Amino acid sequence: MTTRTEKDSLGEYPVPADAWYGIQTARAVENFPISGRGPDRDFIIAHVRIKIAAARVNARAGWLEGRLAQAIEEAAAGIVCGRHHGEFVVDRFQAGAGTSHNMNTNEVIANLANVALGGQRGVYHPLHPNDHVNMGQSTNDTIPTAIRLAALAKLGRLVFATHEMARALDALGVRERDTVKSGRTHLQDAVPTTLGREFSAYAWTLRRCARRIQDTAIDLGELGLGGSAVGTGLNTPAHYAKQVCAELAALTGEALRAAPDQSAQMQSMADIMQLSAAIRGLALELTRIANDLRLLASGPRTGLAEIRLPPVQPGSSIMPGKVNPVMLEMLNQVCYQVLGQDAAVAAMTQAGQLELNVMMPALGSALFDMMDWLTHAITAVTTRSLNGIEADRDRCRAYAHASVGLATLLNRAIGYSAAARVAQESERTGQPIAEIVARHGLMESAAFAELVARAARGELV
Fold first, then answer.
1. What residue ranges in 209-309 does DSSP mark as E strands?
2. Are residues 67 and 98 in the same domain?
3. Among residues 84, 101, 128, 186, which one is catalytic?
């Protein structure tokens, strides 16, 4: 590999000749061969936008020469549009707080801008990564800000995907609102309900989860940017924090504002932890719903088989014709991974010390993973599974009318004790409740069937 030699405070170091990054990035690549995973795309864009906003404010304050500010903005704009993302090469597990990523960004922008101004890579004139691209900034305020901005970008996608799943479940709820089936509690027969009611309940739960996730955006919009190294605003122009947050709000379309206490937004990751906790809640509900759907689709002969999932791939390498609920199994696996990442976020949230939480690179990575994985999994399950679900209405009806739980409908007519004896007779003899009721002269079979339907629809109040 052809290299160029650059120099920093530690001495000289080789850098790939065609790299847009520089010496500090090259050192980090050698120091941290950990996961093989580069930075998250939304995080790259968020961090670069901070450089644009800072250049604008510094230029207006007269701190940064106009042509240099323009060169920074043009170089950064290309990165925001998707160019040069391969130049962001520092591993997700790196130096505490994310200094290596901050310098990766500074160096790439500086080299792009210098070449555009007639200079060359690795010769930081007229524009320097620290003096100009990083002007008025510190890793300590740019990295937590970039994490929050990236989280806000992902939040909208996750909430949208969750609402799409809820809409699919709502559609099933409407379609199957009159499909009477046996309810089950403790995995045992219970009073009748409808398949539509089950699906509608899932949808309502997911919409509530989405609302809780969305609510975290308010606190995430409070930024410590402008606090510089420890929240004092050292080496920033007057009113910098307010102005740079306004520029970022314009660049992102998010409701952003300077935090009342900038030191706090470097020390505390509690707002990020709250988002993680809300996502954990969604993952727990999705796990429960996925398991319910797998139970309802179990079979096709020896399980419940009240619904049929669309077949998307053969299910067995040895059993011909077998089809498994693979989309829901995938969703379960993703949810369990999300729970692990949430636990990591929680541990790293409390790991901050004094003026800074140095666990931010891994904390951000864990948050980004859980948001992306869940968004993709929800979308895949909605499009590949939920939208194709069919109900076996005859089987639902047969189970409902065979259920021992129907004896509960007799409580008001003959009392709990007598109804219990009817249930026990049904369980002992295998006769349906309707037949026993008719034989004892308690109610005609047709009238009892109508009572079952009304109870399932919630009309017996």
1. 222-223, 257-258, 307-308
2. yes
3. 186
